[in-house]
Design a protein that fits this description.
Blueprint (H helix, E strand, L loop, with lengths): L6 E3 L4 H9 L6 E2 L14 H19 L4 E11 L2 E3 L5 H11 L3 E12 L2 E14 L4 H10 L19 E5 L2 H5 L3 H10 L5
Parallel strand pairs: 1-2, 1-3
Antiparallel strand pairs: 3-4, 3-5, 5-6, 6-7
Length: 193
């Protein structure tokens, strides 16, 4: 069941769009927000994810006040250290070397903006543990190219799945959109049965 209001996904992520589609939820429009995603001094990972999800949604909701607007942001953290989107192969190498054999967190914040009401917000935190990686395994993953542009330099739904020893939490949240939380939010506003 689709919402009576226009439903907008405020994200340029093809993974988020695919996750929604796999769940039978198809946005009327996809309008990514262009915001500065630079972390503030001393900003913790969960706070950053929540702020960015909120700011992305707020921009698009202001332009479309009579729509439901769903926005999200995913950050990867090793302790309090943020691992941004990998800009190139060297970032992917460095991130994998840092995360190998240890646990890191994938935090995805979601915001649902609706007309004349306070936005609904959720935070999904999952834990992922890579196996100890050889330099050959790291280089083989770098060569796939799939880690570039991804928070933490990897995509759990791709080749990296073979390198992950354990995960706890929301698989879809790690990919970029915690579908359980999104469905509950949409149900609470009458947009899903």
């Amino acid at each position: 069941m689709m919402p009576a209001l226009p439903f907008i996904l405020a994200s340029s992520s093809p993974r988020r769009l695919a996750l929604l589609a796999d769940s039978g939820i198809v946005p009327d429009r996809v309008l990514p927000a262009d915001i500065d995603e630079t972390p503030r001094k001393g900003e913790r990972p969960a706070s950053l994810a929540k702020r960015l999800a909120y700011e992305k949604g707020a921009v698009i909701a202001a332009q479309n006040p009579q729509a439901l607007v769903l926005s999200a942001d995913t950050v990867v953290a090793v302790g309090l250290r943020l691992l941004p989107k990998a800009e190139g192969p060297e970032d992917v190498r460095r991130f994998l070397r840092l995360m190998q054999g240890r646990r890191h967190r994938v935090i995805t914040a979601v915001a649902l903006f609706r007309p004349d009401a306070k936005p609904l917000e959720r935070l999904s935190t999952s834990a992922v543990t890579f196996k100890r990686l050889t330099e050959k395994e790291i280089e083989a993953y770098v060569q796939t190219g799939e880690g570039i542009g991804k928070a933490g330099g990897y995509a759990i739904q791709g080749h990296a799945a073979c390198l992950i020893r354990m995960m706890q939490g929301s698989y879809s949240g790690i990919v970029g959109l915690p579908l359980f939380d999104v469905a509950q939010m949409l149900k609470s506003v009458g947009a899903l049965a």
